[in-house]
Amino acid sequence: xxxxxxxxxxxxxxxxxxxxxxxxxxxxxxxxxxxxxxxxxxxxxxxxxxxxxxxxxxxxxxxxxxxxxxxxxxxxxxxxxxxxxxxxxxxxxxxxxxxxxxxxxxxxxxxxxxxxxxxxxxxxxxxxxxxxxxxxxxxxxxxxxxxxxxxxxxxxxxxxxxxxxxxxxxxxxxxxxxxxxxxxxxxxxxxxxxxxxxxxxxxxxxxxxxxxxxxxxxxxxxxxxxxxxxxxxxxxxxxxxxxxxxxxxxxxxxxxxxxxxxxxxxxxxxxxxxxxxxxxxxxxxxxxxxxxxxxxxxxxxxxxxxxxxxxxxxxxxxxxxxxxxxxx
Amino acid sequence: xxxxxxxxxxxxxxxxxxxxxxxxxxxxxxxxxxxxxxxxxxxxxxxxxxxxxxxxxxxxxxxxxxxxxxxxxxxxxxxxxxxxxxxxxxxxxxxxxxxxxxxxxxxxxxxxxx
Lengths: 328, 114
Hints:
The complex is a heterodimer. By secondary structure, chain A is α/β, with parallel strands linked by helices. Chain A contains twelve helices and ten strands. Chain A has helices at 17-24, 52-61, 89-102, 202-212, 216-228, 235-243, 246-249, 263-276, 288-292, 297-306, 309-315, 319-327, and strands at 6-12, 29-31, 40-44, 67-71, 83-84, 144-145, 154-155, 157-161, 173-179, 182-190. The longest helix of chain A is centred in the first third of the chain and has 14 residues, at 89-102. Chain B is an all-alpha fold. Chain B has two domains: 2-35; 57-108. Chain B has four helices and no strands.
């Protein structure tokens, strides 16, 4: 975490990712990965009305005194908190930083009650018989299921992730069953949201990958180059990225798409595009949920970041369309 | 006796101060929604009480095998000068036992880089 800036959790919506990258460069702000480390909840871009509850959950997880700021978006109905920041990036950064100290503390929107009441019966209060089973706090205990990696059958944990997970494309919601850090199965609930033109430049696509690979300084150089002129060939930057050896740090054959490319080859393609000053070629991910099964959590994040958001959106048929297709 | 009394009184004062500060620092528990795990806005379907595999356990086995070896070898090196062959035989026995652990680890595949 950088020193000095106001810690901000960015809840990004649609059509905004490029602008968020510009905002990240402002020294007054420090974007953080979880709301627990943040003082300000910054809601940016077009929001789905259905994500209101998710936003309220994030809002409740901020440390007190919490503040909400809306930037380049309107307040969601039923979420009457916070103030609107000015449109321009530098004004917005100053405004957000000021809100952290000046605004009154906001109360949480959700009820202060256990999400599911305690139902402790059984020898260990777990709500079932023996050590296993039962529903303490109304949620079922994790039960064993077959392991994909080495045959040890251990407990599987199912949870819904997204839409504001910072490592994933904004708007993506997946119900994921994990065993330790291995993804057993994934079901896509909502596709990622469409983003602005700047977010689809090879610069920013590489920057997202490099941040996952813990090379934030290079990512920042790419973002600066993209903001200066996204269509100019950046041969030196492409070389700088390649010389870090980052391509060989990615496992070979990870996340094979329909054309036989993997994460490494897709990243190499982005580097070529960056050096030539043209957009990267689109990839065909195929069945994204099936591709993630059996991968470790960090590998899955890399696979998701290795596709452009448009590729993912094309590959993921929205649930409404899927239902209509099933009905027909 | 006097020293003991002073210590007891001072301890009592400090305990009282800590308890007062604890009481004055506001409510103990975070509200329920704040206590939920951060899943990017999502919610867990299953309870968090679960078992998972500690996959580094074989590495800890090897670490202990080699570390114990070294811990014994430093004092042994001093004694070896006086004792000679007897100490050498003792160290040989000790290493033989430890190497069983290493052989077991080898069989489990811990030296394979994944």
